[in-house]
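Issue 218. Parser rejects a valid record. Input:
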Amino acid sequence: MEKISENIADLLPVGIYRTNPDGKILYANKALANILEYNLEELLNISVKDLYEQSNDRDDKIRFLTNSKNPTICQEINLKTKSGKTILIKDTGNIIKDNNNKVLYFDGILEDISKTKLAEKALIESEARYKILTDITVEGIIIHKMGIIVDVNPSVQKMTGYSSDFVKGKNILDFIHPNSLDFAKSKLNTGFSGSFEIKIICSNGSNLDLEIKAKDVIIKGEDYRVVAFSDITERKKIEKNNLALSTAVTQSPTSIIITDTKGIIEYINPKFIEVTGYTLEEVIGKNPNILKTGHTVSEDYKVLWETITNGDTWRGEFLNKRKNGDHYWELASISPIIDEKGTVIKYIAVKEDITERKKTEDALIRSEKELTQANATKNMFFSIIAHDLKGPMGNFTQLLDLLKENFNEISDEEKLDYVNILLGLSGKTNKLLEDLLLWARIQMNTLEFDINTVNLNSLVNFSMSIVEEKAIGKNIKIISDIDNISVKINESSVNTVIRNLLSNSIKFSHKNSTIYIKSKISKSKNSIEISVKDNGIGIPKESIDKLFKIETTFSTYGTNKEKGTGLGLIICKELIEKNSGTIWVESEEDLGSTFFFTLPI
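Output the parser choked on:
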């Protein structure tokens, strides 16, 4: 039986071997000896390592085989024949182990795949040469299978405007003009070999007349059809006539402008004249910037030009100017016109007057903003009443009840403590009511707002005197560096702002610190900038934007746990804006805050 197996092995066209771990060949069939150009006796007397180009190549192979989780491994290796020729071998190896997992043998099958690899390389080189030829030809070439496009050359994209990725997988009939569709169907899969003419639709919607040459071919054993085509139209002349003289353009309800590649106007339709008031003679040869208002910034125009010069369409809005100076809004679509070579030859702009629509949109935005503001104001008002006003009033009542119930049992000193607490509560409540009433008058536009000439230095000194007691309580020093200058303002409102900002700085400053209030004149802006700076706890970066917005009010405790409502800064913002100024803050957590506001000189 063993002899029969050996005879069968010798008849196989592949080499069969068994080696021990040291590389000694224990068995080889005749096919293996033939592959390596040895006879069997010679082969059995050499080491496997002698067959490798490098002696350590076998060690690498054995390591790869023994480290694999799969006992059978297929590898491609280079071996030397007896004559010294190197051949590429496919080695399918298997490890034989004993019960103790010790390697006993390496069995395997060797196949000479040198010729197969050479054939594969030749096929790849042949396909590469074919690809080069199709890529450089000026004719468009499409390969399809039963009408489904599988490949195109670059000339197809240049001639039609469609990219390779776009057309692959689509039916070739999808690009045929309706007038040529039935004829193209009759030629599609009939095996017709010759030339004929059809009309197709390009990516920009234009039509292209083509001369088609089609032929059936076999590629890798499968049937395909190769279609080569060339442009046979005077496309440039047709584009010019269709774009400039078309009835659809002249009667369009939208303005249409055609310019050269430098943006010089070559054509306008009647709607453009109607909308802008300019005549044909006044705009031909001019740049469309005669309509500019300055609303669109140069960076936006740069993006526009980059888009259309790259062959893409730009869409956006312009605030333009009519001949009589009136402003109007336009929704514009600007596209390049590309010739049969893929070159941009002109630009076309289609523009719709959307002035009335913009007015409606702006009115809606204002209405929504006012509604949001009204809801925020209402919510803020009720929140303050429910929490900040109700709390102190409840505490006030409870303290009075306690004082009344225990009046005869407590000492005069304790009674004085009660009175001081009640005075503090009443002061805070009174301040909150004053702020609420001031805020309410601002919202209802009932606040008297007379403008007078006021000495700024005197005003700041007066405001400082009001908060002086609070500052002394925390041993805080306020240093003033205010210009002795007169400003035209509403005195009481600006006093309220300064007092609020100083109170906040005291509230959020540490004991034994300093607050600075300074002014700086800006002659170019005809205004003066006042700043209130502290070195207190500062404001978290994410909370700064909430400070002056009623819909996102922000309040926190001071360094002595002083409680606020978040209403003060909102009132400051509205009062400063009523004085034609602006207010802002710069702050860093744990390092302090500086509040700025401006007033007109």
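Fixed in the parser; the record now loads. The longest strand covers residues 207-219.
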